[in-house]
Amino acid sequence: MPLPRTRGKALRQRLAELRGPDVPAKALDARALAALAANPGCRRRAILDGAGVNKAAVASALGSPSVFGQSQFAFTRGNAFEAKVKADGGAELLRLVHEKLDRRAEPPAEARVPDLSATGPEGRAARTALALREATAAAGGWTLLDHPMLALDVAGSPAFLEPDAVVVHPDGSWTVVEIKSFPMLDGSADPAKVGAAARQAAVYVLALEEVAARLDPAPEVRHRILLVCPKDFSNLPTASAVDVRKQRAVTGRQLARLTRIEDIADTLPEGTCFSPQLPAAELASAVESVPATYAPECLSACELAFHCRDRSRAAGAVTSLGRSVRAELGGLTTVEEVLSAARGETGDPEDPAVTALRRASRLRAEALQNCGPQAPANATTGGARS
After folding, report:
1. If residue 113 lies in a helix (H) or strand (E), which one and from where to where?
2. What is the CA 22 to chain-centroid distance, rounded?
3. Strand order across the 174-179 sheet
């Protein structure tokens, strides 16, 4: 649910203060939202993303620059491929949608491509919602929305998202289209990249569902999205239908678990600011005032991962060893606590984690004792052969 007007205005002002004076907000895109949903317990990322802070600039100012992100070459290649796919009013794109997702409908001989331009993200989101409503009401034809703007409520703060395209089918249902520049070889692509694209598309599906829920009757938002990629080693487009129901359910559940951004902001000391222009020591203090939940998976999804990893290692936190290890250790949160429990110095003997650690310690000691010293390889020959 959106915040009341006065409360929402106060929150936006507070978030602007956290960014710093004259620092523009960085848009929260679907890729960032998918990464945020994968680690909903990280209050640090939630408040920084919610405030529109440029985490890459913050990481550089803290002396832990990020290597996360897309290269300029890949960005340019992706834009060129997307332009090719959408050429001629999206004729090839709509052909692929018809072939992969809706063969029972009439082939898209022509399609409506409404103008979605408006002032600001709020205006574009409203214009997109109107275009979707009009296209759904005019059933019987195809409609292509090129780079629509969708709004999704995230922890009490609106996030504006821009999918590559949304197609309205002749039956009034809606489909998300993801256009990627990685190749599809012999009909299949890199599973890791397909998975990332599916998680990103799931965010768009959630946002579309919010728009659909405001219409009566609510149109169907299809859970099979169209993933368009270059075919083999060419620049010709091919496509595959990807079912994102699992990713949509997981992402929706994780986003719902996020602590409201305004609640996190209320816990920060007065005057807290995350501007990259601050002195390094002051900026580090501000960042450390918000707890983080670091895991090795953050290295591929968050610009602040190297900074958080250094702090996690310095504190001896077991989360730096991975979420699976952290889950196995129960209430033992630091490496020192784990070693102390394994040696029998601390820990509840009834705790299964402590019991397992002590047994592993005994087995290790017995194995080392039974090994004994090893004789040198040339001991029986009296030295090296000449």
Report:
1. none
2. 27
3. 111-112, 142-146, 165-168, 174-179, 224-230, 237-243
pLDDT digits (tens, 9 = 90+) for 283-305: 999 999 999 988 888 888 889 99
Task: Tell me which residue of 347, 370, 368 sits closest to 358, measured CA to CA.
Answer: 347
Q: Are strands 111-112 and 142-146 parallel, antiparallel or unpaired?
A: parallel
Provide the sign of the torsion angle of the four alpha carbons 335, 339, 342, 345, taken in this order. Answer: negative
Helical ranges in 25-119 per DSSP H: 30-38, 43-50, 55-61, 72-85, 87-101
Q: Which SS3 state, helix, strand or coil, does residue 189 take?
A: coil
Longest C-alpha distance within the chain, in Å? 95
Say if CB 138 and CB 130 are below 8 A apart. Answer: no
* pLDDT of amino acid 3: 47
Which string of DSSP letters, residue by residue, matches 276-314? Answer: TTS-HHHHHHHHHTS-----GGGGGT-TTHHHHHHHHHH
State the residue for tokens 């650690």: 357
Nearest Cα residue to 37 out of 262, 273, 307, 246 = 246
Residues 6+ apart with CB under 8 A from 59: 65, 66, 303, 304, 306, 307
Q: How many CB atoms lie within 10 A of CB 87?
A: 11
Global pTM value: 0.75
Query: Closest Cα partner for 293 from 322, 332, 266, 335?
Result: 322
CA separation for the pair 66, 59 (Å, rounded): 6
Tokens of 273: 């600011």
Q: In 3D, which of 208, 203, 206, 198 has the Cα closest to residue 145?
A: 208
Q: How many residues does the chain have?
A: 386
Ranges under pLDDT 50 in the chain: 1-5, 379-386
SS3 assignment, position 152 = strand
At position 140, the amino acid (one-letter code) is G
d(CA 173, CA 102): 10
